[in-house]
Structure formats: C-alpha cells, structure tokens
Automatic annotation (TrEMBL):
EC number(s) reported in the record: 2.6.1.42
Transferase among keywords: yes
CDD domains in alphabetical order: D-AAT_like (cd01558)
Keywords: Amino-acid biosynthesis, Aminotransferase, Branched-chain amino acid biosynthesis, Pyridoxal phosphate, Transferase
Reactions catalysed: L-leucine + 2-oxoglutarate = 4-methyl-2-oxopentanoate + L-glutamate; L-valine + 2-oxoglutarate = 3-methyl-2-oxobutanoate + L-glutamate; L-isoleucine + 2-oxoglutarate = (S)-3-methyl-2-oxopentanoate + L-glutamate
Pfam families: Aminotran_4
Protein name: Probable branched-chain-amino-acid aminotransferase
GO terms under cellular component: cytosol
Organism of provenance: Plantimonas leprariae
Cofactor: pyridoxal 5'-phosphate
Length: 279
C-alpha cells in the first residue's frame, strides 16, 4: 500500500510520524473517511465541508487547500489501483513538546492518508442485516466534531460483540439512543423514518444528510427526534448509515428481532436509492 505522510507518498513500512505528535499524545486530531466505488469518491464535498468545520471548532489550521486534498485522494486511488474501499484522512495539530496548551503558532499540522481496499456494495452484513446491542454512551459532549478520540466507541463495539451482536447502539443518560459506534441510527415505525436530530450529541453524518433528503424526496415521512431503546425494540425495522456501511439494515436490538427478523423493505429501498444516486 502507498500512503501519504506530510507531503510524501510512501510505502506503509516507511509511513511514520513523531512520538511528539499531538494526535498520538492527546488525540488532538480530526479525521474523515471517504468511500471509493469504481475508483470514484463518494460524497467528497460533504466530507471536506465537515473536515473544515471540525478544524474550525478545534481552532486547528488546515494542512493544505481542499484542491490539494482532492488531488491527494485521487493520487492514492491511482497509486493503489483502488476500485472499492475507503480512504482515511487524519489531520492533527502537529508535533510539539507535550503541553496542554496549544503549541506555538506556526507549528505545522500533520496530514496522513491511507487506503483500505474491501467490498462496499456487496456485503454479507447488508444481505443478512446486523444485530445491535445497546450500551451506555461514554463519549464527551462534542460528538459533532469528528475527532480521533475513538476509545469509547471502540469499547462500545467490543461490549456489543461480547453480547453476541455485530455493533453497538450507544444510549445517553436520558435513555435515548444517540448513534451507532461509527454510524447513525434509524428506526422505522408506523411508516415513518425516525433518526435523532442534529446537535452536539451525535456526529452529523454525511450519509445521514443524503439519506434524510432522499427519504423525503421519495415520499417517506421523516421525523428527526430522539427515540428510546424501548421504542426501537418495538419498531417495524431499523437501519444504520455511514460512509462505509451506506445503508445497512438492523435486524435485532438486544436480541429482540424487528419485524420478521430479516432486513426491512424501507431499509432495502433506502439503500437502493442511496446507491443509485451516489454511483
Ligand atoms: N464513521 N456517527 C459516528 C460516531 C461515526 O463515527 C460515523 C462515521 C458516522 C457516519 O458518518 P458518515 O455518514 O459521514 O460516514 C456517524 C466512519 C465511517 C469511521 O469512523 O470509520
């Protein structure tokens, strides 16, 4: 694999950053994941807009222009002959002696990217649907910023797996579902698609924005509001969205099967509509 590290295209064995990088010491960094299908970047403008926002919220300098970032993504697709998979991009505040205060102005942000080849369109998880388990949401109060602080969702996913599920749905102290470990969460009940409204409690998914818009355009009734675990377990169907999962059906919550326990018709339709628009 060829990676990108601060201006250089390097084989992964040579891709290295400083031990003083604030991403490593303090999780002082943000990231984006863009999906590639047929060599084409999906929703790239949306990911760049969110990156700009994450950087702004953390008062972090942009490493380079968005035109450059697009050129780097395209070059990695080319060098790795990436047909289907993901491109991971991470920006950190750079390397500086360890201090809680930000480093001096002029410290160069670090920029790294790498690709991960793998199926996006045809996945077992989509055919079967996934099982989710609910776990407490232990993350900080600014989940709208896409930081590299991913320990809480990593633990959430492991807890869900220990319970025999494929992924976690995280639940706030108020008893309402926030989102999946790395995806947004939806239920379908009484013919309505319900997903939590945008706030600092969840990541503003780029796929979510497309799916909410497409649902409305195709005549679905969408309600953006929080829902409880009990409401979710009683729903007709459920699904998740993310750059890598697109729309993936959820077939059970904490062992309670939804509908007949197979992927629901609205989840399948939303996936078809999203795929048709994106490719
Ligand atoms: N995760 N919520 C969380 C907590 C996420 O980490 C993600 C993305 C999403 C979905 O956002 P989008 O539709 O823009 O991918 C929601 C990425 C894919 C990841 O961490 O790998």
């Amino acid at each position: 694999r060829i990676t990108y590290v601060n201006g250089d295209y390097l084989p992964e064995a040579e891709a290295k950053v400083s031990i003083f990088d604030r991403g490593f010491l303090m999780a002082d960094g943000v990231y984006e994941v863009t999906t590639v299908v047929g060599g084409k970047l999906i929703d790239f403008a949306g990911h760049m807009a969110r990156l700009r926002r994450s950087l702004g919220e953390l008062r972090m300098d942009a490493p380079t222009s968005e035109d450059d970032l697009l050129a780097i993504h395209r070059e990695l697709v080319r060098r790795n002959a990436l047909e289907e998979g993901l491109i991971y991009l991470q920006v950190t505040r750079g390397a500086a002696d360890r201090d809680f205060a930000f480093p001096p102005a002029g410290t160069k942000p670090s920029l790294v990217l790498f690709t991960q080849a793998g199926p996006v369109l045809e996945r077992e998880s989509v055919r079967r649907g996934i099982k989710v388990a609910t776990v407490p949401d232990l993350r900080w109060a600014r989940r709208d910023i896409k930081t590299v602080q991913l320990l809480a969702p990593s633990l959430a996913k492991m807890e869900a797996k220990a319970k025999g599920a494929d992924d976690a749905w995280m639940v706030g102290e108020d008893g309402f579902v926030t989102e999946g470990s790395s995806n947004n969460a939806y239920i379908v009940a009484g013919g309505k698609v319900v997903t939590r409204h945008l706030s600092n409690a969840i990541l503003h998914g780029i796929t979510r924005a497309s799916v909410v818009r497409l649902a409305a355009e195709t005549g679905m009734n969408v309600e953006e509001r929080p829902f409880t675990v009990a409401e979710a377990k009683a729903a007709d169907e459920a699904f998740i969205t993310s750059a890598s999962a697109f729309v993936t059906p959820v077939v059970s919550i904490d062992g309670v099967a939804l509908g007949d326990g197979s992927p629901g018709p609205i989840a399948k339709r939303m996936r078809e509509v999203y795929v048709a628009e994106s490719l």
